[in-house]
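Q: I have 249 residues here and want to know how they pack in 3D. Can you give me a structure?
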Amino acid sequence: MLLIAVTGPPGSGKTTLLAHLADWHLARGRSVDGFLAEAGPRRTPNTGAERYDLRWPGTGERMPFAERDSALRPPYRFSEEAAARTAAWSRGLADQLPVSLLVLDEFGRIEAEGRGHMALWPSVEAAAPDVVVIAVRAGVEERIERQLGQAFDLRVDARDPDAWQRLRSACVEHDDWTRVGVFGAGAGGIEMTAGSALHGARVPLRGLALSSTQAVVMTYAGEGLGNRTRVVWVPFIAAGLKALSPAGN
């Protein structure tokens, strides 16, 4: 699981980045889950909004989440219905296939104390999504890591001009190397099983049959890569596994 934090103060564009990432994944035909805390009007720039709604980008579901109440600390009245909905959602992750991208918005001071959305983390972690991207309030990153029990693999400041490119590239690289590993292992498995059997039986034209099969595997693997040059690693992985085959090389 690749764990990414999109950091920044209120109004810095964290939610916008997560929404953009979710839309990009959906456009690529990938599965997306999680929720975004979309802000309403702000009294002044770079401060908390007057209200927040939760939106699930995978389904489009939306519901009220928090309303500003200056008499409270923190100054928000949170929806019990939204809390129940997110809790039910997290419990349901165990019954689903792992998703390609899961977004969580946002983890701030409350989560740094182990409350709020932090209660959802054990279920999220157990569901093992491919990539988890969390919007994190600036200044609490280390405390959030301690609550999560692991460090972020990547931190992206939402205010950086190249924030979107860094976020997108990290996801592409993760997808690519996962795909390369899967197809490399598959190609190696073919060599270790069918290849060993054919070589052991000295079947005519076995080399041609196996090389043709590997060409098909590499072609199919390369079509799904963001950077197609990484497909060259598929035969290297396959060759490493082939060296372990019972019939030798």
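Q: Anything worth noting?
A: The radius of gyration is 23 Å. Residues 163-201 form the longest helix (39 residues).
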